[in-house]
Design a protein that fits this description.
alpha/beta; Metallo-beta-lactamase, Chain A; about 250 residues; seven-stranded mixed sheet
Length: about 250
């Protein structure tokens, strides 16, 4: 937990190899996704895991949920769609909260609202609010976002691939042609991410953090530059080990 330093986000992984982000506040830590080894979470928190107030998981794919049993085994409350728990055969639901889209939940000092997004399995995005942070939009693994969310302070948004890079990779045999159909129906393309930024009021947003970039079909420098131009805000690419101040009023 943070002690008088304001809210911060630590990225432990972002992409197909594993996703996990820690929101650290003075009154507790909220995990976003459980897609890295839980030992990495322990190390990041200096083994003070008693400060974790809960864990949110967007969907069942292992790069978002593979350490789920270890998280639950440590007595940490996990909030996820019922399909997530079913996918791992979790019978004892003592620390499991099955959530429903378009419903709100309280997790320690965090208020969480889940909404459905368009992926190839049931998946949700989250609107997360905390007095130290304000409102954070967290959206990953979706082809689109049809909602406009007012009064945002922070945005964590998937920008998985660019169509022109994908087409080049298909034409040159770097990725199979079947990749196009899968991405079109499951992940957010750069132009779509720009559309999400344009559709939402960015006046109160401190920064945009791009998450879940494709290893082959993205360009981190280009994505950062183009999203920053559209948003008018500092833009960062989430990478393992990075920490960003998410205080409502940045220092």
């Amino acid at each position: 937990m943070m002690e008088g330093l304001g809210m911060r986000m630590t990225c432990l992984g972002s992409g197909s190899s594993g996703n996990c982000y820690l929101l650290e506040a003075a009154d507790g830590v909220l995990m976003l996704e459980a897609g890295v080894r839980f030992n990495e979470v322990k190390k990041a928190l200096r083994f003070k895991i008693s400060g974790i107030v809960g864990c949110l998981v967007t969907h069942e794919h292992k790069d978002h949920s593979k350490s789920l049993k270890d998280v639950i085994g440590c007595g940490i409350r996990v909030l996820a769609l019922d399909e997530v728990f079913q996918s791992q055969g979790i019978a004892n639901r003592a620390f499991c909260k099955s959530i429903e889209p378009m419903h709100g939940y309280k997790v320690g000092g965090f208020k969480v609202f889940a909404f459905p997004v368009a992926h190839d399995v049931p998946c949700v995005g989250f609107m997360i609010e905390h007095e130290e942070m304000g409102k954070l939009l967290f959206v990953t693994d979706t082809m689109m976002l049809e909602y406009r969310i007012p009064s945002l302070n922070h945005v964590m948004l998937e920008a998985n691939y660019a169509d022109d890079i994908l087409q080049y990779n298909i034409d040159h045999g770097i990725v199979p042609n079947a990749m196009r159909d899968r991405l079109l129906h499951s992940h957010m393309e750069l132009q779509t991410a720009k559309g999400v930024i344009r559709a939402n009021d960015m006046a109160g947003v401190n920064e945009v953090i791009l998450i879940h970039l494709s290893g082959n079909n993205s360009d981190a420098g280009r994505f950062e530059r183009e999203i920053s131009e559209v948003s008018g805000k500092p833009t960062y690419i989430a990478m393992a080990g990075m920490t960003i101040d998410l205080s409502k009023t940045p220092f």
